[in-house]
Amino acid sequence: MTTRDLSQKQLNFARVSIVCVDIVKLPLKDILNIFIKPTELVNNIKACQSLLDGEFKLNPDQRRKCSLNSTNLPDYSNFDVTLLYKLIRHLCPDPSLGPTNKWGKKPKQNDVCVVDDIERIRELRNTSFAHTESAEISDDDFKKFWRDAKCMMNRCQQFTTSNGCKNDYNQLLIDLDRKTFTFEEYMSQKERSKAIYISGDTQVLCGEKTCFKAEITLEQDVYLPVNWEKLDKSFRKELDISSDKYKGSNSRELFIHCVCKEDEGRYQAVISRNQDVKIYSNEIYLCAQGGEEDKGEYTCTVLNAVGLVSKTVKLGIPSAEIRPTSNVIFGSDTRLDCSVSGNPNPYRVEWQKSDDGTIFSPIDIDSDRYFGGSTDPGFPCLLLRKATFSDQQYYQVAVWNVIGKNTSNPVLLKVTGSRPNISEGTCTVLDRSVRLRFNVFLYDESPPVIDVYWTKNRKKLDTSIRDGKYSEKNNDGKSLIIKNVTESDAGRYQLTAANAVGDTKSEVIKLAVPEVLLDNFQRQEDGRWRFTMTINSVPTPHYVQWSIKNTSETFQPLNVNAEEYKGTSSLFPHPVLIIQHIERQKSCVFELEVKNRIGRATKQMQGEMLQEYIQEIKKPLASCEIEDSTKLEEAKTPEQFLWILVNENILTKSDVVAMQFALKQTNCEELEKKCVEYAQQWKAMHYFETPPEPGSRNVYFHVVANLQNFSPEDELKIKKTVAKIIGCSLEEIKVHGYLPSNSFLLVLSIKEIYIKRLLAMRQHDKDTLIKLNIDYLKDDFMTIRLMEKSELTVHRPMIHHTKGILEPPIESCVIEKAKTKSELTGEIYSESDNPIEFIKLIYELDDRFPTEKISRLKYLIQVSCNVEDVTLLEEAKTVFECFMILGKEGIISPSDIIVLQFLLKQTKCEKLERMCLEYAQQNKALCYYEEPPETGFQKLHFHVLGEINKYNKDDTTKIMKTVASIVGCSEKDISICGILPSSSFFVVLSIKEIWIKRLKSLNQHDNDKLSKLNIDYFKDDLGQTAGVKAKPISIFHRPKDIFEPSNKLCLVKKRKIQSHW
């Protein structure tokens, strides 16, 4: 039945019913909220005695709605007219807010204040109940009702709007006046206008929960109890709402849990005024839909006089299938489509995702991330916008019908893409301009490049200005043109390329003034001296010139065609100066001038200085124990001197201590710097010291031994001993260096909290360190001697090398896959034997090694490796043959590629060297590795008596254990931080300062521990020294009879070089 089928009186009733039940409640709710906020309601009620136990007290249902016994905030939208009227009447704080004709009485026609309208709302509502039975209102009564309602709502609108409320009551009346009604809607309003009305979800799946709510419209202040009943034909059954089936139910709400077929039927609420008078609500029918037990085939047969007809249908759970999709490129949109079917038809679809394909969680397709997707059972789809790697998950669809639930096939969405790649850069000079160039390229299935820009010193350059300083050309890569280059253009230039995955920064191209270095010098076979320079210049220089200054005050261009300087060249990057009679050039000054577009640099060399290079290099070498001193006297070139040191086994690929000293003595700072760089890069033996970390201090342990005989095991022993003495862990002590002494220093890094314990060690702890050949130790402030002067023994000079092959450098260790740095501490190597991978490596090196460098490779093998059959090496024509010779000689093996690293590094084959390192990591082969120091540690230098090449890993472990025992820490609080060589040496331990004081008062027991480690004394950076045989001291002093790390390394027999190094 449509609107045309309803009479005008029925339409009038439907509109009046909606006004009285729904619309008039809104201004009451707003007025209550104006004067009393929901957060204040409970306190206001508790302060009003009449609402608690007076004539107008709240009934249990009203108390529940007001949250009197709950922590939840009351919801005014759930309050009915009766409750709103009662609260406004008794809790309004404004005395003037009262009706003109008093509360509870009908207002007069001229009473038009807002409270009068509140009374009118109550009266208006009662009027609608008078027509409940007939459910009809005449046109005259309706017109009067509608006119009064509009005037009343308009006045309420003015009051609530002026107080910030936004509900538009007038518009609601206008919309209601235009509304059309169906017969069902009319019947619903008829039911609602009764004294009690129930509503709720009546179509419920088996196994789920439903709730019916009762609304009482009677204007009664007394509490009316409500009972719930289920109707079965003509029988009524009152429900026990205290049972588990109806758990949580009350007189206003009926909860039915786990709905099943037995729950199907009609339900009704009943108000009992007394035993004889009952008011019944409308009836609602609960339909339990579906269930697994309903699955199967159903047949319907129709029979008449002619015959019969049958039809069979199959009911079951639905099915779903996601269509496969291709890989998704990072940053792009993609869509997953799914087909759903079932009988009965599915009524619900849900998209789900999972990281591992086992546990799935629902997807909110209404979120921005998936906006545009659909859960319509007819055509479900999932739209992913700007896919990222986090979207690479498993996806499936869950689908329901009244029979049950099913899930689709899981689909793994693969997201591909990588950041842009940038090739190595180039810098070329174009007249007065410079062009910097990189190639930017992408891997397959990667998002496109969206931004490319240049930076100078990390600041973005503006290349868009026409005829500006900078311009870009992208025809053959990404190029930056810098016009009219001057000194102001010096800086660090970098290209950044970005796509949806992220950005990539190129290597830095540094434009700077040229750097000029003396690379090497040697005497040629014809007797001339050859000085080779190295120019480091970006951009490339446009001017290189040799000049000479003799008697004049200015430099003049050198005549490179003169016989005296024949062979001199200015070729970049290695200009050469040839001098025939160097002894005649004492008064001359040679200058190499280099200019590029950034600026100018010069390198000056006095003729007298060049001659002194040759003579001075003999002096420090005289301090070494060279068996054949005649060869030293006859040597006239640096090359000859170096061969003497190599043949005497004083200078090796793993020991550059002697060369460090010689270059330092001859003031060749640049060459000495190269020597140190070599040692750091190739883990060769040299002097070093690392600054302490914050919260740590360096302590110097004097080791009466030769640094060359000191092993990582000896280093570890000192760390462990110190850790044990001060009571810290081994990880809290770091080795921070080795310093020269008449022996050597082991540098341990120890957390500062343990330093005090170490400095206050007992004699027993000192004895433990003494047994480790430690005679003293020191930190940044004091020195602790472990034995007296009379107990010290005399040791031979530091530079004393035995003939034969030396052990690998003490800092070298194996890089093992999946190992942490802490696990690598102190390891030398692990055996690994994988000949197949090793042969593959050799073949790959042979394929990629530059043929023009083979002669250089053979020369390096000859001078640096002890190859017995030199003839085979000379006849070798390929890199493979050269490396196989090293393999047969046992110099390289599947488990040791250190020599390969060295040869590739010296021939400047960096990429091939990285291949070796990758091989070592994968196959646990011997290679170079160095663990950086950690924060929170302080270094202590332990002086170890004896030669370092006689120390092993166990000896170092003993020292670490002893120190840990002394200070009371674990071995994890101590770590090796460095070795400082000498005939004895200092071990520098970094120890937390809180443990330092413990070392100040070592007892005899601690002294014995240190002395067993060959430690005779230790000191701090302030020079305060303590010996392991000394009694516990509280004030420390620097012993005058101990050779300090600040002194020059003693290479000369029977004398000390006192100048500071």
From TrEMBL:
Biological process annotations from GO: homophilic cell adhesion via plasma membrane adhesion molecules; regulation of apoptotic process
Protein name: Ig-like domain-containing protein
Pfam families given in the database record: HEPN_DZIP3, I-set
Transmembrane segments: none
Signal sequence residues: none
Keywords of this entry: Disulfide bond, Signal
Keyword Oxidoreductase: no
InterPro entries the UniProt entry points to: Cell_Adh-Cytoskel_Orgn, DEATH-like_dom_sf, DED_dom, HEPN_DZIP3, Ig-like_dom, Ig-like_dom_sf, Ig-like_fold, Ig_I-set
Native source organism of the sequence: Magallana gigas
Domain of life: Eukaryota
SMART domains: IG (SM00409)
Domain DED: from-to ranges: 837-918
All copies of domain Ig-like, residue ranges: 318-416, 426-512
Listed GO CC annotations: plasma membrane
